[in-house]
Structures are given as structure tokens and as C-alpha cells.
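Changelog-linked ticket: S-adenosylmethionine example.
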Amino acid sequence: MVHETEGPLWPIELSELQLSQFARYYAMLVDWNERINLTGIVDRDEVYIKHFYDSLAVSNLPLWQEMVRRGARAIDIGSGAGFPGIPLAIAYPNMSFVLCDALQKRIHFLQAVCSDLGLNNVACIHGRSEDMGRDSALRGAFDVALARAVARANVLMEYMAPFLKSGGVGICYKGPSFVHEEFDDAKRAAPTLHCRLLEPLTYELPHGLGSRALAPFIQMQPVPKAYPRRAGIPTKQPL
Ligand SMILES: C[S@@+](CC[C@H](N)C(=O)[O-])C[C@H]1O[C@@H](n2cnc3c(N)ncnc32)[C@H](O)[C@@H]1O
């Protein structure tokens, strides 16, 4: 049976190969979820919309389309079960992705998914973003930094900004309360990290499954050496 979510609901056009990669990813997610905690959502249509569709929602941002044209290098911080990194790596095979997470078992899952789906444009790294953001091989090495459901925006920006090149783009995936509850905090953190916040984009998930927001920022120049602060400090003392 062809589910509606395989057809008209995708934010971008996908090939048969890409649709089969999403189907396999769903099967692995549900299977591994019985042994390790990956997601609270297992219903097929809900996973397709709340995880897959939502991960691909950046496709509507002109900034993202420019990154796709350039074959940009992206990092997904706190990727967990692979959102948004895996759906984007499936949809945009000309871009390359680093997925990072503080939990080793989630990195094992992500490596198994990449191997099974034949995603050779993805590397999965175990670690905390505050430590990785000080690694000279990763600092200032990315055109795009992404993060979904990891921390409040002012904390996230401290995680994300150190990975970006000057002119690079950070995109925080947020809930509908972002504009009222987090935007002012993000605005306060931005100058310290040399970021410029752009207008957030709010959007609706299909089938009335909720509203979401994307909060983009531009990295105007390299982040000062003092950031990111030691692991745990950004959450305890947010900028
Ligand atoms: C709520 S889950 C969200 C996962 C995924 N991004 C999503 O949208 O479903 C948050 C993930 O971020 C990871 N995480 C939290 N803080 C982190 C940090 N400082 N560095 C790396 N990973 C972190 C956690 O281990 C967890 O897997």
C-alpha cells in the first residue's frame, strides 16, 4: 500500500531510491527503538510527518537552497535518532553531513543506518558539542550548523556557532513558542558569539500535526576563543 505520506506530503521531490531509503530508515528506527530509547513516536504516519517531513522543512529557506547549490558541508548537533541530519543526507546527496551526539548508543544506531542505507555523505561522531567545538579539525569548518530539540536557542547558538565558517548559517529547529519565548534570549546572545539573527520562519506540519519554527542566523566572523565554554556551562549559565 502506498501511504499518502510517501507522495504529495514531502516538501521536496524524492526519487524511488530516496523513498526506499526513508522506508528502511523507518523500519530500523522502530526496530532499534525496542532496545534503545530513540523516539517516543513510532506510528508510521506520525514519524513521516513529525520527524521526516519536519527535518526537510529547511528546504523552503532560500539560504538553504543556496547551500544545496554549493554542495555545502553541514553539522547536526545532538542528532539523536538522526533528526534532521539523516533525512537531509538522504534528500541532498551532494551535500556532506557530520552528525554528533553525546550518547554513544545513538551514534551506533546512526552508523548502522548510514551503512544500511548506503549513505556515504555522512560521518557520525560521539561527543559533546562543547568539546568538539574546540577541536581544530571541526572548529570553523562548516557552512551550515543544524540542531533540533536540543536546548534553548541561546544555549544552542553557543553549541553551533564555533563550528561555522564566517558567512556560514546556523538553523535552529524550534517549536511554535520560539518567537514569544526564546527569540529575545537569542538576540541577547548573538553579539557575544558574532552572530546575526534572521527572521524566523514559522510553518505548519501536514495533517494538522502542529506548528514549528526555524530560527536562522549568520556567523558574521569567527566566534571569540572563549566560546564554547566548558561542557555543561552553556546550559547552567546561558548567554
Ligand atoms: C531530545 S534529543 C533530540 C534529538 C534529535 N535532534 C531530534 O530532533 O529528534 C536531544 C539529543 O541531543 C543530545 N545532546 C544534548 N546536549 C548535547 C551536547 N551538548 N552535545 C552533543 N549532543 C547533545 C542528546 O544526547 C540527545 O540525543
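Closing comment: Example verified and attached. Strands lie at 73-77, 96-101, 122-126, 142-148, 164-174, 195-197, 201-204, 211-219. Residues 4-236 form a domain with the Rossmann fold fold (CATH 3.40.50.150).
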